[in-house]
Structures are given as C-alpha cells and as structure tokens.
Automatic annotation (TrEMBL):
InterPro entries: NAD(P)-bd_dom_sf (IPR036291), SDR_fam (IPR002347). Keywords: Oxidoreductase. It comes from Arthrobacter gallicola. This is SDR family oxidoreductase. Belongs to the short-chain dehydrogenases/reductases (SDR) family. It comes from the Bacteria. Pfam families: adh_short (PF00106). The keyword Transit peptide does not apply. Transmembrane segments: none annotated. The keyword Oxidoreductase applies.
Length: 250
C-alpha cells in the first residue's frame, strides 16, 4: 500500500459526518488516507473498498490507541503529511451549574485531550520523517468564536482548541510543521437533525430552524487547506451556512 510519492493523511472521526465526507474527498483527490474512529464497521463503510484507505479503529482519548494509529499509518504509507483532527463530541446540554463533572471531563477528554494526543503523535512523526514537516488541521467549531446557549462544555473545549492550534503552529515553525483550524457552522450531518427539524435554541429562548449547507463543501474546504503549498498556512478558516444566526447570537 505504501507509496512515498503519494500524499498521506490521517483523519480522525472518519466513520461519519464531516470526517467521512473529508476522507472520501481526500481519497478522490488521490491521497492515501488512514481512517480512524471507534467503530470499525463505520470506517469500512467510509473506505468503500478504496485500496488507498487504511482502516484503523482507535479511540483518540486512549494514548496507546493514538500511538498505534500513527505507527500503522507511517508503516503503511511511509510518512504522514496531514492530520485532520476531526473527532469530537457535543457533550452535555446545560449551563455551567447544570452539567455533571463526569460529562464535563468526558467532553474535555474527546474534544481537547484527544486533539492534543493526536497532534502530539503527528508532530513526532513529522519531525522524524524525511523530508521533515507536515500540516495539522484542527476541526474547531464556530462555537470556538461564539457559543450556543446551554453548551458550556463544548464551547470551553473548542475555545481551548483555538489556543492549542496557535501553540502547535508556533512550536512547529522550526520543523516545517504548520497548524490551522477550520470553524464550521451547520454543515448538514446527522448530528444537526434538531436544527433542521425541531429548531435550534436561540439566545432569547426561542427555537429556530436554521439553514445548513452540504457536508461535501466542508470536506472540499479541508482538502483545499491541506493542498496549499507548505509556504502558505491558512491559519483560521470560518465556514458557515449562509444566513445562519452566527454573528448575531448575542
């Protein structure tokens, strides 16, 4: 499977939603892709028999799983050029006085610690490969900029991911490693069924059915970021459904 002339990517959360769409976009563009996620059957469905896809079941909150993921990707492909750090969880609904410590910790484990563990493993691999370097793209959220009501755990982790992104990019400069973040709002996935049916909770307490956009457009944007030359870093990209209540969340 290995080809040193091909670009290679690791995509977490590749079994559904934005991760699945992005993995398929990378494969269609000729990339070799390591598909990571907790459910092997979902990853196999994403791969759809593509010989350039490597299915690696892994839980990003488990350090041993993360190390195994990057070791398998490097062994199969020879190097890792891009990590799309996509795995995440919405976590509990509730204000800061309403959520449990267990739910808070679980959200941090997936959205922040998992992102850190994967970035650390990617950086270690990118430092030792020849030629050295690579790109990390973290999936933030527009909640990294402006929160939704009753989403304190999710919002806090996504704000933290922004700081993590900036720190990784700064520390990676001397090794040809860049780090960028995409903040996506209302890509049409199964996770947003409530926004398109019962309506999303607004700051004034009302519910509103919000517009969405095709998840394939989010995938194409991540691919664009990945395929920029090493001399260019997209930094921070915000992609939302046209007309969604974002800047006016209050």
């Amino acid at each position: 499977m290995s080809s040193n002339n091909s670009r290679t990517a690791v995509i977490t959360g590749a079994g559904s939603g934005i991760g699945r769409a992005t993995a398929r976009a990378f494969l269609a563009a000729g990339w070799q892709v390591a598909l990571a996620g907790r459910r092997e059957e979902a990853l196999v469905e994403t791969a759809d028999g593509d010989p350039r896809a490597l299915v690696i079941p892994a839980d990003v909150t488990r350090p041993d799983d993360v190390e195994r993921l990057f070791s398998a990707a490097a062994e199969a492909f020879g190097r890792v050029d891009v990590l799309f750090n996509n795995a995440g969880s919405f976590g509990p609904a509730g204000a800061v006085d309403e959520i449990t410590l267990a739910d808070w910790n679980n959200t941090i484990a997936v959205n922040l610690t998992g992102t850190m563990l994967c970035a650390a493993a990617a950086v270690r691999q990118m430092k030792r490969q020849d030629p050295q370097g690579g790109r990390i793209i973290n999936n933030g959220s527009i909640s990294a900029i402006a929160p939704r009501p009753l989403a304190v755990a999710y919002t806090a982790t996504k704000h933290a991911v922004t700081g993590l992104t900036k720190a990784i990019d700064l520390d990676g400069r001397g090794y040809g490693i860049s780090c960028a973040q995409i903040d996506i709002g209302n890509a049409a996935t199964g996770l947003l069924d409530g926004i398109t049916s019962g309506g999303a909770l607004q700051p004034d307490g009302s519910r509103r059915v919000e517009p969405t956009f095709p998840v394939e457009d989010a995938a194409r944007t991540v691919l664009f970021m990945a395929e920029l030359p090493a001399a260019a870093n997209p930094g921070s990209v915000v992609l939302t459904a046209a007309g969604m209540p974002f800047l006016g969340r209050g």
